[in-house]
Amino acid sequence: MNLNFLIPIWVWCGLIMFAACLQAQDSPPNILLIFTDDQGYQDLGCFGSPDIKTPHLDQLADEGRKFTSFYSACSVCSPSRAALLTGCYPPRVGLTKVLFAQDNKGLNPQEITLAEMLKQVGYRTACIGKWHLGHKAPFLPTEQGFDYYYGIPYSNDMRIDPTAKLADDIVLREGVTRDQIKTVPVSKQKDRLVPLMKNDEVVEYPADQTSLTRRYTEEAIRFMAENKDQPFFVYLPHTMPHIPLFASEEFRGKSEAGLYGDTIEEIDDSVGQLMDAIDRLGLAKQTLVIYTSDNGPWKLKNGHGGRAHPLRGFKFNTYEGGMRVPCIMRWPGHIPPSSETDAVAGTIDLAPTIAALCGAALPQDRVLDGHDIMPLMTGKSAASPHQAYFYYKGNRVSAVRAGDWKLRTTPANPKKQIPEMVELFNLEDDISESKNLASEHPEKVAQLREMAAQFNQELRNASRPIGELGK
């Protein structure tokens, strides 16, 4: 055997392997973004839940990084989703209220979503789950950068729009007919039955909500498998645990935390299936996985509401429990395992961060509010890029956090002779916002007031309109 001939072959093989490694390291990551609906800060085992079992999400945290001061941009659905996909506070893009089936509005098609940014650099994109950024044709996911959509168009307690496009092979359930769908206006519908859509058509009505978590999971796995040889972005906004709560037969009645716990434990099982699929496809080191929630939990009893403990507040308000949400990120080889950060970050940071990671250009003709938080994700920096974080309630700055200090104000109500309420908290010492320090630190109140006023004026000067049919 001629060894002089073999040496160049082995050298060549080594060079090929080295080049492949470099290519793998330099290739843009796949993105799996899991976004639950109304999940409380405490409602994961790794965030302290005493009775909801989430072994797969706990493992995700063991393999990745927990963010313990991670914020939604609003305490209700539609605005928080607009912020996630645009990197902007909701008033910046004109979407400050929850959208309903009778609305002719949605996220303005002129906005540039994260999906659109990623498509520009070759990503395949899918939205699988609850959309809630406009159900009319110009506002649907397939018009906002997503190649594929499967899910419900808004919250699962809403009704169907009679003008919705029905698939030829639509599955009609519970005795519903096409004629009923087309002739009964939203205001006259007695039951809150939500449609299931595929791309721009309703394919099932009413949707079988007991199977949604399972079907979303199957769709996400299928899409990842079909696109494993090119970069993909899967946005998976779950319907649960928004009320009314539904769980499959396999999980219903199993959690110690009631039906709410059942829905979270089923989502946890979904995460386990997704992680197994990523491993089977050989994509673990190439895939950034992010898990978080759109806002805090409903304040409900009888096993239908979540917990934000030790935070104060719930959905609909700007105490910490309404907007600080659980967040876990995993990307092997980039995000350190079993780590956490308490630096302030939020969903408005995801679009600019993911765009930077994937080599996508951010729009230069408009203002974005988020920052690239990759240094926080990797542990290379312990500092938040936010000098201040602003909590919006509708169009109003309801609160501002700068460092450990948070100022929260509630407007006066002259008709009821209720004066303005001013609350100042030190979140480092008082995470539960139990001690109002406003009277003890008037200078800090004044400083944060001015900071909020200046930012709000800047935002208004550079805000953009909501999308509206006919405009």
Could you explain the architecture of this structure?
This protein folds into 2 domains: 359 residues, Alkaline Phosphatase, subunit A, CATH 3.40.720; 78 residues, 2-Layer Sandwich (Arylsulfatase, C-terminal domain), CATH 3.30.1120.10. It has 11 helices and 19 strands. The strands form 4 sheets. An 11-stranded mixed β-sheet has the order 7-9-8-6-5-10-1-11-12-2-13. The chain is α/β, with parallel strands linked by helices and 471 residues long.
Descriptive tags:
about 475 residues; alpha/beta; Arylsulfatase, C-terminal domain; 2 domains; 11 helices; globular
Task: Itemize the secondary structure elements and their pairings.
Elements: H1 3-26, E1 30-36, H2 55-62, E2 65-67, E3 70-71, H3 77-86, E4 105-106, H4 114-119, E5 124-128, E6 148-151, E7 166-172, H5 178-183, E8 196-198, E9 201-205, H6 212-226, E10 232-237, H7 258-280, E11 287-293, H8 320-323, E12 327-330, E13 339-341, E14 345-346, H9 350-357, H10 374-378, E15 389-393, E16 396-402, E17 405-410, E18 421-426, H11 442-461, E19 467-468
Parallel strand pairs: 1-10, 1-11, 2-13, 3-14, 5-6, 5-10, 7-9
Antiparallel strand pairs: 2-12, 4-19, 6-8, 8-9, 11-12, 15-16, 16-17, 17-18
